[in-house]
Amino acid sequence: MLALGILALTLLAFYYLIVSPLEDAYAANADSLQERMRISARYESLVEQLPELRQADKVWRERSGGELLLAGTSDALAEANLQTMLKQVVEDAGAKLTSTEFLPVKPEDNFRRIGIRIVFSGDLKLLTGVLHGIETARPRLFAGDFDVHTGGGSTDDEEGDSQSLAVTLDVFGFRAG
């Protein structure tokens, strides 16, 4: 009887110390394997959809007017692209850029905020033209600090006298970080 009791205790100890932990490990590995197979199937589905998604992205970009982010593989290139864009916007409105100053680049989530402070002068019509150009620009641009002072002079136009304005404006765009 004693030998059978010791044998039973040995078998129970063997089961709880070796067999049971192995069964738990196999069950956990089976669950992990099933989860990985679900993820793999999802990725395969996304890979099959990739050409369709790229085409939809291309159509959306053409319809919306272009890229949303500044082009450039570095902050310096993105700043140069932004400066060129702003020079064109100001000149299209009929003014000339008096000065530009690069603002510090700030990381924001997965993006980098690129900014330039521009200074130009003109009348209210020119100012609204520049702001409209910034608002409709692609990639998307955002106006920041804005300072307007009368320049002291006046210009004559068809509607009468209008004050010359000195404008300082911070403009920001984003690039992928």
Helix content: 40-55%
Total number of beta strands: 4
Largest sheet: 4 strands, antiparallel
Radius of gyration: 33 Å
The CATH C-level class name of the largest domain: Alpha Beta
Describe this protein's structure:
The chain has 177 residues and is of the alpha+beta class. The chain is built from 3 helices and 4 strands. About 3% of the residues have low confidence. The protein is elongated and about 115 Å long. The chain has 2 domains: 66 residues; 102 residues, Alpha-Beta Plaits (2-Layer Sandwich). Helix content is 53%, strand content 32%.
Short structural description:
The protein has about 180 residues and is α+β, with helices and mostly antiparallel strands.
Can you lay out the helices and strands and say which pair or pack?
Elements: H1 2-64, H2 75-93, E1 97-108, E2 111-122, H3 124-135, E3 142-157, E4 160-176
Antiparallel strand pairs: 1-2, 2-4, 3-4
Helix pairs in contact: 2-3
Keyphrases for this structure?
alpha+beta; single chain; 4-stranded antiparallel beta sheet; 2 domains; Alpha-Beta Plaits; elongated; 53% helix; 177 residues; 32% strand
